[in-house]
């Protein structure tokens, strides 16, 4: 069985995003970019399934600019076998990414596609679900545990107020939640080895997908600055203050 893992190059999670002065988006000039954290978890899970002898190949794919090759090399250094870059400098919305992934699924025929539950730049939480719908395949989203058992994959899902376990017939789509695993670091020898692993470059047109945007961003604003708190002497003073503020 092959496992396909889509990985997105996003603004590093430690960087505080700055909104462009004209409010059209986030300023990405001279900003550190990294693999989307949920996608690192997806790569790790795919590698663990392969190491358990339940898959033979892990293929990573990214849709994005030439620089996304770095993100793919990181996944190859973690242990993925080969990579595909669908190269474009345009901003690609989740529906277009899902259509590109559908085309790759049709050529690669993976048993599992493991995506992150969301990309931390657009916070869409849509691509995995759209891919499952386009392919007509079962999906297990927000996975905190994944077990391949014969021709089924058993996914424990983090849902409001608890956990839900579902059994999906393979081929299936899984999206990862934060608690699924702790991704490994790539060792130096593996970083060197990754440079020689195959990385194919395609275009969205090769996949037969029109990536023209369907959405228009009207405005992006910084979060409101929080006002400072105050200290009160005791519970009576707290209650009095809350009453004064009209919240008690
Ligand atoms: P989103 O629906 O944008 O929140 O993204 C959910 C997941 O879809 C991500 O965690 C990735 O696994 C995958 N994905 C989204 N955009 C891309 C992209 N441009 N390239 C590769 N994978 C992507």
TrEMBL record:
<dbReference type="GO" id="GO:0009055">
    <property type="term" value="F:electron transfer activity"/>
</dbReference>
<dbReference type="GO" id="GO:0046395">
    <property type="term" value="P:carboxylic acid catabolic process"/>
</dbReference>
<dbReference type="InterPro" id="IPR033948">
    <property type="entry name" value="ETF_beta_N"/>
</dbReference>
<comment type="function">
    <text>The electron transfer flavoprotein serves as a specific electron acceptor for other dehydrogenases. It transfers the electrons to the main respiratory chain via ETF-ubiquinone oxidoreductase (ETF dehydrogenase).</text>
</comment>
<dbReference type="Pfam" id="PF01012">
    <property type="entry name" value="ETF"/>
</dbReference>
<feature type="domain" description="Electron transfer flavoprotein alpha/beta-subunit N-terminal">
    <location>
        <begin position="23"/>
        <end position="211"/>
    </location>
</feature>
<keyword id="KW-0813">Transport</keyword>
<dbReference type="InterPro" id="IPR014729">
    <property type="entry name" value="Rossmann-like_a/b/a_fold"/>
</dbReference>
<dbReference type="InterPro" id="IPR000049">
    <property type="entry name" value="ET-Flavoprotein_bsu_CS"/>
</dbReference>
<comment type="subunit">
    <text>Heterodimer of an alpha and a beta subunit.</text>
</comment>
<comment type="similarity">
    <text>Belongs to the ETF beta-subunit/FixA family.</text>
</comment>
<keyword id="KW-0249">Electron transport</keyword>
<dbReference type="InterPro" id="IPR012255">
    <property type="entry name" value="ETF_b"/>
</dbReference>
<dbReference type="InterPro" id="IPR014730">
    <property type="entry name" value="ETF_a/b_N"/>
</dbReference>
<protein>
    <recommendedName>
        <fullName>Electron transfer flavoprotein subunit beta</fullName>
    </recommendedName>
</protein>
């Amino acid at each position: 069985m092959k496992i396909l893992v889509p990985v997105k190059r996003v603004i590093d999670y430690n960087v505080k995003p700055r909104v462009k002065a004209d409010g059209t988006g986030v300023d990405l000039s001279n900003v550190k970019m990294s693999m989307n954290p949920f996608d690192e978890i997806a790569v790790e899970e795919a590698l663990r399934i392969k190491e358990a002898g339940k898959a033979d190949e892990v293929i990573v794919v990214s849709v994005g600019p030439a620089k996304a090759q770095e993100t793919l090399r990181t996944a190859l250094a973690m242990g993925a076998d080969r990579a595909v870059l669908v190269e474009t400098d345009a901003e690609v919305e989740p529906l277009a990414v899902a259509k590109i992934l559908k085309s790759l699924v049709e050529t690669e025929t993976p048993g599992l596609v493991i995506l992150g539950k969301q990309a931390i730049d657009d916070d869409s939480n849509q691509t995995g679900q759209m891919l499952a719908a386009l392919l007509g395949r079962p999906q297990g989203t927000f996975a905190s545990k994944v077990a391949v058992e014969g021709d089924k994959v058993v996914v424990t899902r983090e849902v409001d107020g608890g956990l839900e376990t579902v059994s999906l017939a393979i081929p299936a789509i899984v999206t990862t939640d934060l608690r699924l695993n702790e991704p490994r670091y790539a060792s130096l020898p593996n970083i060197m080895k990754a440079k020689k692993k195959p990385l194919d470059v395609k275009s969205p047109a090769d996949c037969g997908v029109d990536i023209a945007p369907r959405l228009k961003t009207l405005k992006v604003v910084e979060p409101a600055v929080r006002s400072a708190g105050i200290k009160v002497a005791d519970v009576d003073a707290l209650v009095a203050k809350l009453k004064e503020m009209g919240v008690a």
